[in-house]
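User: Continuing from earlier, I have the next pair ready.

Assistant: Great, send them over.

User: Here they are, in order.

Assistant: Folding the first of the pair now:
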Amino acid sequence: MTAAPSAFRFVSSNRRVREDRRFVAGQGRYVADIALEGMLHVAVLPSQHPAARIVSIDASAALAMPGVHYVLTGDELAGATDQLMNGLDTPHVKRFPLAVGQTRYAGEWIAAVVADTRALAEDATEKLRVVYEPLPFVLKAEEALQPDSPPVHAGHGSNVLLDKLFVWGDVDRHFAESPRHLSFRVTWGRNSTVPIETFGVAASWDPWRDILDVWASIQMPKYPDQIARALRIPANNVRVHHDVDVGGSYGVKRGIKQSVLVAHLARRVGRPVRFIEDRLENMRSGDAHGPDRIFDVDVAFNGDGIVKSMKIRALDNAGAYAGRAPFQLGKPIGAIVGPYKIESVQYRAQSVTTNKAMQEAVRGFGQAPTNYAIETAIDKVAAAVGLPRIEVRRRNFIRKEEFPYLIPSGSTYDSGDYHTVVEKVFKHADFEAMERERDRLRASGMLAGIGIAACLEPSGGNSSFEPLLNEKNTTTTWMESCRINVDAMGFVTVTIHTTSSGQGHETLVGTIIGEVLQIDPDLIRVVRPDTLACLPSNSPVGSRMAIMLGGAAFHAAQKVKAKLARIAAHQFGCAEESVTFASGAASDNAGHALNWTELVNIAHRNYHLLPQDMEPGLEATHVMQVPTGDKLPENGRVQMYPCHSFEFHLVLLAIDPDLGKPEIRRYVIGHDCGVVINPHIVRGMTLGGIAHGLGATLLEEFVYDEQGHLITQSFMDYLLPSSHEMPEVEIVHHCTPSPHTVFGQKGSGESGYLGSPAAISSAINDAVSPLGISFNKLPIRISAIGDAIADAQQGKPQEQAT
């Protein structure tokens, strides 16, 4: 990578986030703000059965209602479109926006009504008459594995989407030689990001120009390509408008089924169409659920607490369709040993279909559940050998001088200093005082515990887990782009080629280009062209934008700077290497100088002053490939993400034994994401991630009853953390620059979330350990805590959830 300055003018400075101004003032522009002339609205009819054959749909009463324009069924849509893409090679697990012939989960969309208003469309769905023939169904992953379980997709032959066994290193020998072993099971409950804004999409078809215009609340790579593929039209007939703000996502807003549905309807009725999910649709059938995973873990270690090997079996309940869910078992392979020097690993990744709503990509893409399993293992090893949990971590941590460090599964960690981060957190928190406070709380009759978690945030996302799990996929390119144009007046306009998903991309790009060109970032305009004017992009996923978009912006700015240096050197009569830049001006050692305006004027207006063969104007483009992402997997091993941030969580928690309600008394996190581009953005990501993790640990879960119906489909039942539950968080920063990035930055988009569930559950288990009980399933609900405490006080054995 290009060497960056050792001292920064704008990078890492405490500058405002430029996007915040419009959001705070209520001037964001969302899909709900898109009002196209003659626009119609969509409502969908959900299935009432987890599995049923659709015998017939009678739409006559709905179509007779004034203001109703069209009713679309799954059979008609399937005849006009191709199935939505699966990541795995599962051609018989077919998925369309509407159920075709059979429903596969309660809430799946059966039909869509187009009407003058959303309310009228909803009323019309109630007039649809559907005759069902109920079928057997399966909800639990372990039952779905059985050969005689009800098939979700009969043509696929079983409910197994993925079953791959990886062995990295000499697992059998390490287990045979290790004097101590332990085994356990933990379960990660199905939850998601449930953003404030549900998914929305508007589409308009112009038959005279053969162009489909789309406005959507998306966070998805290759979005226009997938729409075009499903609609059987050329990709350059789809124009997605990126000047739409996204009201929260963190992975789940793929929205491809919603978009294909609305786009087809816009073409069918000849008018613009918009669909915005209500909360029920979003939670029940928006295809936005997260991992639903069981881990069976075996650990081999010695009496000093040194972990030699692990066996992990991860069984994931993907729901009714494949989608991206199985790949969430793939990303964790890139950090399968966490921050520890574990020499060998056996990893079995299993994904099955069931009659639940399907999963989609959720923040961390499967890393947070895996971190929870790894950190639980370290806690249990510490208990087994009678050592403090932090001491076992220190003994197993990769040391600073051992980087770059190759882990058994093939990824090389770029840099880190885990011991120093831990020491800084302990010093900041005064760990001994924290232990005394825990003991004081226990003496007062409370249950109190300290939670510890250390984990990695792989960042700079690429696609290497896809060919690892699907050999037919040979993708290695995973790029991001930036274009810079300096106009004849000297003003800088930058184009980035993805939607705004709340991560501060405009601030990121302005800061980096301002740093390179040494001009005020606030004077740099950042815009988002539509997809027909876009350069390649893979969207803000995988904690990649600081690395990838930031890197593309840096290199594009370097190209502009190089052209300015060549212009200046030509005027000065010196070598380009002798030209220096400061505050947008160029100078040399002989005292020559040209300010920004003079340099721009030569580039745009004085062709006779340009070096020979130089094009006039001042524009540069850079398309950046993921660092280290240039190879396909070999023998089940692959270099996954290029950069690895580190976070260390320390939590003090108290539980009133009469209520069973946990209360976080103190929360300290040590965070190392390399060089921080903007501290405000990183802090916001971290706080939001901890809140998300708190919800996953204590509150949030999509729960189905025995009849296959989702019973947590509103915020009355699906509980979110509020300001009452969210503690004040103290962040301790450390910086270990990455050698793979332009400023040494690493990703932070998933920070906080990847370790907080492990830390909070660790604190709860420490708190209840004097009673001889523990919890092995998330979320750990207040009712479960209260019941377990009451049973322990009465001498009853604990019933563990599975």
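And the other member of the pair:
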Amino acid sequence: MLLPNYFKHAKLLKLNRMDKNKNKTPIKRNNLVISIICIGTIIAYVAFVSCYPITKKESDVLLSQSDKPHSPYLLQRDTMDGGFSRDWMPHFVPSEEYWVDMHAHLSGVTSANDLKQLMDSWFSRLDAFRLGKVVVITEQSEMFKVFSEAVANDSRFAWFYWPKNDEPSLSLVRESVRNGACGIKLHNREIMEGKVSRDIWQHEEWQNIFSFAETAGLPLLWHVTQRHSYSPYHGGGLYAYWQTGWANGVTFTNEDLLQDMLAIMLLFPKLKVIGAHQLHVGQERLQLLFQEYDNLYIDSSCGMYLRWADEFIMEDCLLLCEFVERWSERILFGTDADIKPGSIDEYAVQGFLCHARFMLKLGLSDKALQDVAWRTSNNLLKLKPVSAARRGNVRP
């Protein structure tokens, strides 16, 4: 708790002096009264503070608030042009150059014109919030040529191919890469629902795909597990996928599915795997996994989410900030957005902004913020950088 600057208020009161030509005695009397008030207020404040000592945790919070990073360009202004602009706008904090949303779903598109209109509509809403590129996920193999042209001609667009897990086709995966796919999406939904055998990933066809992906440097975005509980904060349901699976006789658990993924990663140690939705495990478990598996990454979708009216509880903010700072080169920004014709509205836009808000409110260093926002995605997915140039006199 910080001592209020009562002397500042006293100084302001003193400025209201009587005319110089009037008797000086009232001024002295006023000064005496002001001094007594200030001294009494300070004594009362000290007495209050003595009854409410600052704990170590509160001290850490105060330190963290005063130690938030600022834009690195403030330091440049200290020396450039002989320091002429030193301290100009010292409140500027690190800001993302742009966002790469590497986890968005695309559907309802049947032509190049459909795709262009959809991209124009999406970016007309989110360009103002610095969305630079979106990596869409699609099962539409008939659209490979259209996606290839989009990758070549539209810097805003990149894509993942999502093969059906019960119909693995190495030839289709190869074709997707020839047409510009920068990754593969896998999903354990049908396994959790008991519709596909849990050992599907051990089949020869999938082992051949994993081997190809490892050799080609093609990352996997893998939805491996699913939490059981409700998550009304971001709109998640109760026992999603599992309820159907249990009715179909499923007895394995999330831990079993996680171990299946880790076994694949050990078998293909250079295969890069991005665990969707942070694998639905906490920061302590993630840190252990990161330390053990150099080829493991996560995306930010669904969990790294802060709603429009909310602020972090400070203790949570400190822990999350420390985690993201340490592992920023293993975290990719993603939103799980559903992009399709007729779906571009405020509801969809806020879903993106809640993910961006989470990162911006953590108080990350400039390096960590750029890593998560775009750099880690660009490096891992081999994406071309996007221009961060402004379109007007300022950039929102």
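Worth noting for the second one:
The longest helix spans residues 25-51. The two ends are 34 Å apart (CA to CA).
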